[in-house]
């Protein structure tokens, strides 16, 4: 009596596996094309990262920090980046940034239009909400399985898994930002003869931009939190250094790679939050 009845067991995992297999057999060419596109963009980003001299990277961080924050913050951010290089992890940091930037750019290109569609279509909104809930609560390791099956080992599945994990905030907050635009402003635009497209571009998106920027900030942070997990399927960078430290029980290497990820997270979070604040309270 204490055992759960076997006749109620549902092997839903088998259906998911069959679905992935069906996708591979019927849309293999599509996923190959997507993989090629992601890999091309990622390689271009990596080439750009490694083309910029280290001192110019420090200067760029200093100037951006000074522009969007203040002089003290810009000096601190520059010193943190300099410490990462002093740890001998400069190349790993650039590889990590290239993966994060690629995943975030793709997330923005897909997430913002989806958020707009959710704001305009309540049926689509109702359909997407449980999917986004699942994407945010599903253990991130689970994303690695379909990514491996569809794209194989390497950088592309790492970007794909990172994107799936990181995209929900920008979708949700784009939807929220547009819905929170005062109805009076939208009605006024329509009364002056603006089309839905003109109202979206000239009224709703500018008003929703601070909320959208907050969503982008959260997407960046979630993408950065995936670097260690993504290293398990072939992504190089700081995550691979952390993984290697775990495998060899190297406390020193683990601390240096881990604190470097923390430094990156602090810098990216503070700078992107400052940009979002400037959109909200323009000077």
Structure description:
The protein has 283 residues and is mainly α. The chain is built from 14 helices and no strands. α7 packs across α8, α10 runs antiparallel to α11 and α11 packs antiparallel against α14. The longest helix has 31 residues.
* Total tally of structural domains: 1
Number of strands: 0
The chain-level structural class is mainly alpha
Q: How much β-strand is present in the residues?
A: under 5%
What is the end-to-end distance? 69 Å
GO cellular component, one term: ATP-binding cassette (ABC) transporter complex
Membrane topology: Multi-pass membrane protein
Organism: Desulfotruncus arcticus DSM 17038
Domain ABC transmembrane type-1: 93-272
Topology:
Elements: H1 12-26, H2 28-51, H3 54-68, H4 71-86, H5 90-120, H6 122-137, H7 144-151, H8 155-166, H9 168-179, H10 183-191, H11 196-224, H12 227-230, H13 238-248, H14 251-280
Helix pairs in contact: 2-5, 2-8, 3-4, 4-14, 5-6, 5-8, 5-9, 5-11, 5-13, 7-8, 8-11, 9-11, 10-11, 11-14, 13-14
Task: Explain briefly what this protein structure is.
The chain is built from 14 helices and no strands. It has helices spanning 12-26, 28-51, 54-68, 71-86, 90-120, 122-137, 144-151, 155-166, 168-179, 183-191, 196-224, 227-230, 238-248, 251-280.
